[in-house]
Queue: 4 jobs
Job 1
Amino acid sequence: MSGVQDVRQRNKGKGINRDASGPSSAVDYDDHNVAYLPSRSYIESFLNTEEASAAVVAILTIIAFFTRFYKINHPDQVVFDEVHFGKFASYYIRREYYFDVHPPLAKLLFGLAGWFVGYDGHFDFENIGDSYTENHVPYVGLRALPAILGSLTVPIVYAIMKECGYSTIIAAFSAIIILFDNAHVAQSRLILLDATLIFFLSLTMYSYVRFKKLRYQEFSPQWWGWLLATGTFMACTWASKVNGILTVVAVGVAVLIDLWDILDYKKGHSMQYFWKHFIARAAGLIALPLVIYLSVFWVHLAILSNTGPGDAFMSPSFQETLRGNELLMKSHEIRYYDTVTIKHKDTQVYLHSHPERYPLKYDDGRISSQGQQVTGYGHEDSNNQWQIIPTKALPETGRGRIVRHEDVIQLLHVNTGTVLMTHDVASPLMATNEEFTTWPKDDHSRYNDTLFHLRLSDAAPGEAWKSKSGHFRLIHVPTKVAMWSHPTQLPDWAFKQQEINGNKNANEKGAVWYVNEIVDSQDPDLKAKLEEVEMKEPKRLNFFKKFGELQLLMLQHNAGLTASHPYASGPINWPFLLSGISFWTQNEGQKQIYLIGNIIGWWASVGGICIYIGILGADLLARRRGLEPIPDDVRNRLWNSTGFFIIVWAVHYFPFYLMSRQLFIHHYLPSHVASALVAGSVLSFVLSETINTPVSAWGPSVKPRPTTYADHGVKAPVMVAVFAIAMFSLYLFISPLTYGTPGLTGEQVNARRLLSSWTLHFAAKESGNI
Amino acid sequence: MSANVRARRPPSPIPSQPPRSQRFPTLTHSRSDADERRTLASKGYIPGRKPHPSGGVYVTSAEWKLLILITLIAVGIRLFRLSQPNSVVFDEVHFGKFASKYIKSQYFVDVHPPLAKLLITLAGFVFGYDGNFDFKDIGKVYERVPYIAMRLVPAILGVATVPLSYLTLRALDCRATTSVLAALFITFENGLITQSRHILLDSPLIFFTALTVFFWVGFCNEDKQQPFSDHWWLWLTLTGLSLGAVVSCKWVGLFTIATVGFSTVYQLWLLLGDMRVSARLFFRHFMARALCLILVPALFYMFMFWIHFAILSGSGDGDGFMSSEFQHTLRGRGMADTYADVAIGSVVTIRHVNTQGGYLHSHPHNYPTGSQQQQVTLYPHRDSNNDWRILNATTDGSEPQDWATLPLTYVAPGMRIKLRHAATDKALHSHDFRPPVSDVDFQNEVSAYGVPGYSGDMNDDWIFEIYEGSKKDPQSKRRLRTLRTHFRLRHALTGCYLFSHKVKLPDWAYEQQEVTCNKNAVLANSLWYVETADNVLLPPDAAKVNYRRPGFLSKFLELQQVMWTTNAGLTDRHTFDSRPDAWPRLRRGINFWVKDHKQIYLLGNPMVWWLSTAAVFSYIVVRGLLILRAKRGCKDFENTKVVKYDTLCGFLFLGWSLHYFPFFLMSRQLFLHHYFPALYFAILLSCGVFDLVTSTLRPRIRLQIAAVLVIIAIWNFIYLSPLAYGLPWTKAKCQNARWLKTWDFSCNDFYDSYDQYKGIDYTPQPSQIVPTPHGRGAVVVEGPVPIVSVDPNTLGKAEPGHDVFAENPHPDVKSDPAVEPVQYDPVVSDVKEISSNQPLVIPKQALPLNRLRRSKKPLLLQH
């Protein structure tokens, strides 16, 4: 160790001048010769030979495959979100349109896997616990896909560390944290998206590290190769799951820092040089990923060409591109004097009226007009029928009788012979909104109040109003309120039907209605049309329009996932592994699958991050006081390589604090991979201040510098071995919760409840003192 | 980040004469460089006059006269017709009401800390307000309320902000012209005027923000001069006190603390890098700041709450938000001592620990769903229907009702008990029915079931489990002790825990809180304690207990928590709320008051407002450009002028961004007036930019430019002043003044000409919109309908901001007394019961992620 001390002494006071030495920064390294440590321990040298490294990674990979594939056929039941993702695979095979908040790549892969193993898509994955064997689903084939990807993540993690210049034993340490992690194992053995996401994320990191290492050989073929590989894998991550967008952000942050360094005047580069770099990265990391992301959606939409459960989410024009869609089949133009039923889009109630009147006085003392009630009613009824009355002169026949966008109409309630109207009287439940009522059709004293503007959604001027597909808002002509409804029941005097009132903000979502059915028409042609049902060819729509609509809906629905779930947890719990998710339980034999990580690995990772922040904070303060406790090379390694892992960790973690949607512990798994890498590099720093340099390939402009080697001595392999054994033992101990087998008795479950916040099932009841 | 980066620091102290400060020698002409000499000359300090140190505020006597003149103008502008309108305006609804409650000592809870409200109350109290006006609605005419005195508090503080802005800019080393410009901009800012003329908290907030900034800038100047002098300590302590005052007005003051905090950290960072400062000296710097900028504000803040609690000693409508211990300290809310021990046969009332839902309650009404048995709820008030008798469920052979004849048995953990509702003689019961509201698999309904004389079935049995006792009462961990033991009740057959959460039952249960039996219960929501216990077997001299009276600290912390959770929960929409992105462009104002064809509408002075926003953006652009240039090797930051204005504008920009951007993270209801503290910084920043732009001009031209700007600002002010003061206006003028379509004051409310205002004094009662069922006459239309012209802004009704505490959280619905024993058909209910008498079933708990397509309600279906 005395040698190391010497190095520290000699490095003192040099750091500041390093940056100032200008363009020659990569040249003048002569005094680093002293850092060369020829006395490297035998174990260290042996482990870092290529053969030993290959052997280590081979062993790790084999164990990874074993842990991920062990009893993969158990349970032969639908587990947790297999309900969703298994179903989506069926839809791909059946080519039926569905809607999901996640981008399609990972699900497409499942579909592909299913098709490959000969699954015909007949099973619906309706409930957790449905049997696969009884329904003849080749589920092992589906589960094999994430298991393979999850297993491959282990050697990739190893390779990232190796490429970053850490020694074999440190790389193995990081890989072991992932290898024996029960959460990663549980998540990769089931039909879930996270294994795919993490696989592509680690590939992205690997490619980016390789790309960064070639920084002195810029614009060489390899450099381009790894740049494009980074872009490709990044796009794949993004296309796998919606939180893959964070990977894009992480790489973006790293690239911006990189570019900022290139821009530095002291580096001596011209602006032209900077722009070249900028454009290359824009092409590789913005343009290429976009193309890939779009093409994944193109494949998605090309496969899903038939009508399916996702139709209802889409706009009418989108729905008409799906074969067999109801809108496509049953949508007809509406003419004046047609009798129709009108439905509220959000709550699916019919526009309804009945002879009962509003009570004169409400409970809160406000007064009504005592007009006829207009309500929303959920069931079919003859009181739901309204006739469309024109306010302009009509031709006898022909297309002039069609109702069009921006027309002013009256709605006649057929049963009571009254017309719909609204006026400046507060509605029964909301004092800010106007009351809807009706008025006898022969009494013209309130004629103006019965006029409504028909405003179709996204319509061109003069577009015809169609049933089913023609979503519209009904704007009152004199007061500009829109007919609006909300899921609140009126009191008993209106038979608990839903309130309909006039909302001053016509752009509210709840103001959209559509014609459900044309009940009666004066047009004989239409009558005939209503009878026949023919197979229509789906219409075509521009891909980009479809993509834009789908993307917008995905964002909206992702933000809308706020319902509570018993196993949802806040981001603050995740790094400390305070809560898990119950995936599946079986009373018979007391079996369960509970997603929970290996607590040793998780706490080691979060400890590594804390130590890292502490080291850098102390270093910054010390430097401010003119001390330099860490040699420059080691410090650069901490800033650049570990810093990149920290960026990946932070970008995949902190944004969740801003999300108000349902969050689960598996959202932390990408960050956990990054934190395992941080833990490895921190361990390397803690054990010894020696590092392997240089890691980057030499370029033409860089003078070769002497090589130094990391030497962690004997203690590193011993420590890592002890750590691995501890990880493995705890992994084995928790594995019944991960694999769902064997069953556990109550006491055994209690023993595995390492933290009191884990909510395991079948725990033995403790009576008395708790 | 104030003026504490000096343009150029001398490399080392001059050896010949030891300077006064180790770090920063006095700035004199003899030792200043050419730049500084020029700066001094531009301010009138020519060589030969007495040299001024740059620290502190040194204002010449001529400037004092100028300052007094400006202040008088501000008095005229701010206090003009302060008595008009003589009715309640906007949030006076709330803050006036709070003053009434202070005067009457009735406890209330508000989301804002007390200082500003206390000041307003003080004014009201001094001028003899008796607290009997209810401030019910906007537009209600004041009767026997010294509302002018109360309005004077914010108005005077608003006036005081004007000279403060002048002094702050002077202390930041700006020219007198610039400072006058800033003072006049603030004087003629319509929004600040409107806001300071009514009983609202924002004017005190802005004043204290300005005061803090002023003190802090003064401190920074001192710090450059000579640290640890008496002046230095004075400025620092004053900064700390005013920081305490800001945060005691509104929690927005935390942003001011953040501004000063960032600035302090930066100062310390510079000190740390200064190798001439020894570690000991650095530590002294650090401790002095920690003491004055953390401890002093914290103590000040707590002292305000101490006064708050001291005044509000009586019970009021805020009780329901506080814990039982807290309520016990309020006059009129105390509880008599009760027996400490609970035994079989005791009649107890049981309270839920985690929510303020109240007592375990039952009343003779049945659930309309599920088992249709008698309801069990949580009820917040004391009532005989909260009484339950504890019976032993494991008595062998003997009936549970025999408790009176058996020896006294304390309730101990693991005991199997029944709870019998005293008034209706039914047992607390749970079975495999879904609860009425929380209709999920892992919750079971809890009901009261049984008939007199029938000892009940197994579903009435609960296992008593102690969760924790009190440290001071060791017995409470071993057996059930009133008030001290927190316990859970596990249903003997299904293993679920008696549970309640903040979910209200519908009307049929009088909106009381739902009680269920939860198999997957959150621990905190399944804890209960006994509040009162009575047992005839206990001797009258047996040990009695009562709530512990919480000390000031625990009361303080509890109130902070209530304020925090409620503040975050203020998410209702208000007609005139707005999001932060709309504020810098003055997209829309707030309707404060509409009456008698006049209105008050909070809207800024567009010229001042937009100019300040432009200044902020120009700073961002220029600073970004400077950073890029520095990266490419330009040496801008070695220019003293760049450094001076960068420090000045940088500090003001920091203040602006810290008072603005955090609002983006808030999902609560936000209003235009939340921008005002940031606006103050933005106006100062715009004047700083003015100082920079005109720095090369001759003083005369600079003065002319400033005069033009002020004249435009005054013209803007006059143009929109009827809205700020609630003066008569005409429709036409109003229409002309709607420069942006989004300014939604309703012009149709004004008369067509000023003549019509003559003779109208005021209507005594607020005008109300009366429904007009037969209003409009028939219009026969042929062909295309002419669009009837209607003013789109018919929503011209002022509403106060939402106050969650305005209503008692628990409506005082009286629980029905126990009526005559209800007629039973035991056979019928038995049939149901036998079927519910099921063996222990472990539910299947795994649930898929709750995605849209899994939800039971149709979310977006079209067919």
Note: Residues 55 and 221 of chain B are 4 Å apart (CA to CA).
Job 2
Amino acid sequence: MAERVQFGHSRAADAVTTMPSLLGRSLILIAGLTLFHGAFSTYENLSQLKALGRLGTEHRMPWDTAIELLGALILFIIGATVNAPRLNEITWSSQMAKLSIDEMDSRMSFASVNHRGKRLFGNGSN
Amino acid sequence: MGMSVDSYANVLAEYRTRNIRASEDVLKKGIFILERNGLGKLGSEAWPFLEQLALAALDLGRLDIANECISRLDKQFVGSPRVECLQGIRLEFKGAYDDALAMYQAILEVDPQIPYAIWKRKISVLRQSGKIKHAVDELITYLDAFYTDPEAWLELADIYASMSLYLQSLSSLSHVLLLIPQNPFYVLQAAETAYTALDIPLALKFFLRSVEMVPEGGASTRGWYGVKLCARRLLSSLPTSLDAVATSSASETPLPSAHHLALLDQLATERLLAAYSTSSPSSAASKTASVSASLAGSVAADAREVLIRWLQGK
């Protein structure tokens, strides 16, 4: 019997989304560390130039730090996407598949209570 | 889910919203909440909870608990029609149908605003005490007044079906489908009623509608069985012109072509085999396999053999 492929899920997607904690969280961690490192580099660069008195008005962030920070942002986006939990089913058919005939046909306003229930379950108090 | 007043209260609230009549579970959890004085925790939800518990207790013959719930509700809501309804149900429980009927009749005559819950109880008492014709007349009068009550139409369909009047049952279900077109369970019920009324083309149409709404899981297995049965029946009767009765339809539903019927037969077979294949996670077979895990593997294989043989028409 051939295995049925779930609609909308590939094997690769399953492999990635079934371990959200590991890959996603590590990516987010690396991105956070990279961000912190980039921020610290900026601060260090600024304080060094101030100490040397070479801080000009057209001072810009060094290009490697800028790339590092952009890289941190991209890593964080990827990590957050991978870390997201599996999407809930919102289709009508998936909701209806969970219900049963008993609850659709219960007709509680017309329900009779005078049946063998009191013989089977009663404790003789009636 | 742990055993706590809050979690049990959530479960019972869900039973209330979804109209699930799980009396044993309600009683067990309700007694748990009552014993731990959880009524205060429930706040304003305590009153619907007591009503639900009273009904569940009566369902299981526990008059003591039902009396306690009803007396608490009576103290809080003096002279409320809902409480009177519960008291009437208690009379029904004791088998005192005449007393209950007299009580309901008195309330209905006095109250200018007709309490429809009491009217429904009256119809239920008439049905329980065997006065079916009176019950049907009363129910039809009720439905003239309150058309948009799918529960009442379903009750009418059930009464007709119990009297083997399947075409009338089908017409009641058609009103249900007008009111609630998106529910596959009512479509399935209409399909099975049509099949029992021997209107096979109409039954096939309804079965296909129900499996269109829910392709797999839930009640779809039942729908696919219906498609299979209808297709097989129509295919076996098509070649002979003498069998015009079998393919005739009281509702004059047109018959699909033999080619389409063969395709539907094939599709239904494939869907049923898939539903019972043990490799898929949500299949019917895997559910039963987990329940009957102690059964030998050969028994399950034999059952599958029987199913396959039936599907292939041997």
Note: The radius of gyration of chain A is 31 Å.
Job 3
Amino acid sequence: MEGKTSNEVFNREKAEATVKELRQSFRAGKTKTYEWRAAQLEGIARLIKEKESEITQALRSDLAKPEMESYLHEISLAKSACLFALKNLKKWMKPEKVPAAITTFPSSAQIVSEPLGVVLVISAWNYPFLLSIDPVIGAIVAGNAVVLKPSEIAPATSELFAKILPEYVDSSCIKVVEGGVPETTALLEQKWDKIFYTGNGKVGRIVMAAAAKNLTPVSLELGGKSPVLVDSDVNLKVAVKRIAVGKWGCNNGQACIAPDYIITTKSFAPQLVEALKVTLERFYGKNPLESADLSRIVNLNHFKHLTDMLDEENVSDKIVCGGQTDEKQLKIAPTLLLDVPHDSLIMKNEIFGPLLPIVTVDKLEDSFEIINSKSKPLAAYIFTKNKKLEQEFLSNVSAGGILVNDVALHLANLYLPFGGVGESGIGAYHGKFSFDAFSHKKAVLSRGFAGEAGARYPPYTPEKQWILKGLINGSIVALFLALFKRF
Amino acid sequence: MALITGKKCGDEEMGALGLETEVAEARTTFDSGKTKGFEWRKSQLEALLRLLQEKEEDMLKVLKEDLGKHRVEAYRDEVGALTKSVDNALLNLKKWMAPEKVSLPLVAVPTVAEIVPEPLGVVLVMSSWNFPIGLSLEPMIGAIAAGNAAILKPSELAPATSEFLAVEVPKYLDCEAIKVIQGGPQVAEQLLDLKWDKIFFTGSAQVGRIVMTAAAKHLTPVTLELGGKCPAIFDSLKSSRDQRMAVGRVAGAKWGSCLGQACIGIDYLLVTDEYAPTLIELLKGVIKEFFSNSEHLARIVNKHHFQRLCNLLQDESVAASLVHGGSVNAEELFIEPTILLNPPLDKEIMTEEIFGPLLPIITLKKIEDSIEFLRARPKPLVIYAFTHDEKFKQRIVDDTSSGCVMFNDTLIQYLCDTIPFGGVGQSGFGQYHGKFSFDNFSNRKPVGRRNFLIEFSFRYPPWNEKKLQLLRHIYRFDYIGFVLCFLGLKR
């Protein structure tokens, strides 16, 4: 165990020693076998099963996360990631035979997946269990040794990892390092074969710059302002429920793929607002600050970040629902705002909280300009039955992922890559994409000495050039000549 | 003083500010949606093909001028290879652009999903001097096929080629979206300060670090195609015919491609003490057969690299290990094929990438020792091995790491569109060629669709135990349990 549970500070020397130990374990070949990888995954699956209540409790302590959300969004997703990996591990580890080109005839080719080596996973505070264990599962399944640095902003979960993970996995190859900025900096100074970071763009830049010193590839799972376009032709009751559960049912809006703002037509907005109000009351009652089904804001810092947004001039008067806050309990009620100024804080920065601005336009096609004036988000949503509008949305909006007529669900689908683009990140994972994210795809090409193209070699002649031309362009005649013509 | 001499369609000279304007124009063009359509991409690739065909002689000429490449070598390694790649891209473009349907389990949501590739936006390609046309246009093929606007900065160390590209590319391709900007380190620095949607860099690790650090400021994804010391393991081959063929391939890869200045060229050989003398004799024979006329060999790119290579031989212990060649011609920037036997491993010739026609042969007690030798060193772009021993081959694949492994031949992995081309560790990250190029410059965007027909009430708060139970069943794909629970027949 390292970090704050021991008396020593986790500094550069300790970071170096940790990486050295992992490198030795990796070089010894421990992590490469199917048996080892499967054993680790089985260990993690057991951990999730046996420690479900401890995990739920840690999440409640860190975020006041309702038990349902802990189950739905963290525990069950972690479990399915684990089981999916176990089920497919053998298949993923197999080399992939590919056809070799006529230019290289005769030859055989395959793509072999190999582990990158020793990798670092830095996770976030909002889904502190899932966002730690999910990438670690990917690292393990690809055969790497891994250090996990859980977020210090979710201390109960971080401590839980440090305590129980070593009981279920091979701690000579999988380690947990707790800590904040100094410990993370010490880790980032080391040479890793891959760094996987989940968090915000500011720290993402620091991670990538540190990685650049060692030419270490990175995956950055960041965030952005995920827009929701709502058309008037939808089943409003269902749409609104999906939006609501995607926003406030996901850690009270503190989720990278939670709807950040809504765009709808001026004429439809009143209906939308009414429907949202009704749904919010149904979900959370008349006193949402007292509802047990809402997470609290993670800490005072983020609480202030949100209240600053609400208190801004020309914004506070746009609240049409909610707005109640409780600093002592760090609770903010689901809040709707209508037509805040475009240059307000709440429309410039990622909200990451229970505030939902609604922007109105004359016609929905005008929304693309608004969306594209901001950086590319992790997710973009559209509710519509109009196929043409849907297609325009798809073509015009670039995002990590797009969902039509629902919110957030794509993250649960292990067949879809989950990741950002532009400011929302680099790389993707989930399912086989996790395996790929932590692997090197090594091309292996094998030839014999049967066919020899003398035309390849000097002294060069025009005739050789002619044959090479044909050979490179896949001409059978040239191939024939290349193989049999003697020079 | 920055040297910027790109030519716009209207043949105007660019100034320092012109650089930003050019990039801004590319962005405006991309934002207009022009580069996204199939027709545009197809037209650009076809134009590229015409460029390769119509300007073939000019290309061979500038490659001779910059690097002394014989026209056949230049065709084989650059022009021809590009032609194949463009043909391949044109053939497959529609397929690559098509959304990929994703299979989903029944209860999985969303109900229908696909992965849609979309362009990243405006990309920067920085290429290297040793295959100045090939390494410029090969990534560009990927960028264009994927629907991006692209800026190419060719290496200033191959000036004739850089000028050729700056003049000819705008004549064939859409100069509002595809631009060539010439210049040296200062121009590169200015370009790296701007915000790109992707940077594709081919070159040295040292500059690679600079590129990635600059990219980090904007969270720009990068591909780094770097180098390393690519070894060739030479096992004993039974027949003399095989041996002769293998040695020919080694010689071709060491000296026949840009005089050893290739990232996938052979850097050094690993062979048993016992076999080394035979190998050296065979190599000498092949050198005589292929390279007697130095016109069939390329030249060292410039004085700086020429001097660098000469310096490698200066060290006494290195010079003492010379067994063939060693003569140099400063005026011609030519160094003849040179073989060294067991130069000390701690000298620069064995610690740094050689990138030239000096071939160290390192001998080992037994050939299997080559695996430990390689594991102790940084991961190269490719490991070559000449052997018939299937077990040994498997050990090489399992126990070493490199961008690629090539058995019993050299260099041709570059021509194979079905395998990814790229490094690992110090030799870089990111891959291209064939569809890998297309993917490299794309955002693979998952798109899920739901309808309003099926609705699960237990998705929503307020929460209760029953909803939790239903969800447990769903998540385990336990349909029967789910139905029973739903109907109240199961707790």
Note: Chain B has a mean pLDDT of 92.
Job 4
Amino acid sequence: MSFVEDPACLSKSRLESDLVAHNVELPPAGSNKEAYVALHLRHVDQTNAADFSSDDDQEHNVAGEDPEGEKELDPSALTDEDLKALLFKYGVKAGPILASTRAVYEKKLRHLLQSAAEGELNEAENAVLYSDSDEEDVSEGNEDEEKESGSEGDQEKKSETLEPNQQQRKEKNAPPQKCDFSYPQCFVLSSRLRPCPPRNNEHSSKRNSKNALKSSERTRPHRSQIPAGISKVSSIAQHSGLRSGDPVKDILKDLLPDTKTSPTGIYATPRRPIKGAAQRPIQYAYPDTPVSPTIVERQDVARRLVPVYVQVLVFFALVCILLLIFVNVENTNSVVALLENVNQGPDGEEGIPVLDEAAGGDL
Amino acid sequence: MSSTSQKHKEFVAEPMGEKPVMALAGIGEVLGGKLEEKGFDKAYVVLGQFLVLKKDEELFRDWLKDTCGANAKQQRDCFGCLKEWCDAFL
């Protein structure tokens, strides 16, 4: 059972890429898909057939063969298991290779192969450029130096080529030993874990400015790979606290005698709490605070409220005066009788007919 | 942190059930039609593909691009939508 697809089922672009991968000349631009299929059948399928037979004495119509020739460079010609194995070799843990996922994994493998090929080209170029004495060690060391700045790199490979670089680095680090301040923030996840003898702290100065990671090795005289970057940072912070803490401490002690010593060397003074913020109600420590206009208004209104009683009294006084005036102006028996009637109450029945006559006479 | 669209929020809010593929964030009518042609007519089928690719972003985005021609933003939206749905319900 063959896992290779029938060329006629493949798309034209897919056929094109397959032909290119096999270094087969493409048919002219305007040609039909059938031309591609025919070429594909002729060249690619031959190599596939050769794959399934013995590996020796293969008939390749391919013009330029890959000098390495170790594996098939055409991912589409691989079986599912081979594809998966190849991807795993490049560090890609592939899931199930199904009909729907195969295309994606092939594409990924092509990318990986291309980048690997480019990587080899770069190495070859560097080998040519840097070929002095001791070609391999120096060239590899220089390559590693170049690569280190950009990528994190494989720690296992580079640990072997540390020897020549140690001497180079030591020369660089020897002269500058001025600044005692380190920069714990800028650490590079480098694989250059060198065994540094736990000497005085002065030598760490320049190294830290270059690569703060190395300062952690003073506590670890043997080569060990630190898996997490966090542990590196914490160890660096400790060292920076010890070294740079002393001058800082003296200054702070002068300014703020109450500072507590902190292991990290970071000193922070608490800020004054914000008044009026959550759970920090304003404390009225000043009773003679200036009064706002609204409060002034309220006081004015309050003052006006006081003479309300005066106003009421004045009102009643006016009413009494009016009544007196009315009584005086009228000055009739009827009004007097009314008043007497009111005073006497039910006893004064005789007053009523008198009242009636008076009222009727007047009107 | 980029903001999520309304479509994304609606999709992630509940189990997808039988929602059509166009309910996915980043998948509109055109892309949805192309996916349906390929057989991915429901959102759960695309979810299946997402899971088979082991929720890998690069692979899923490549697959989406190859299958329906989604651009980078659409790929990103769809991936984010499915990933968040999985985090919530799977």
Note: DSSP finds five helices and no strands in chain B.
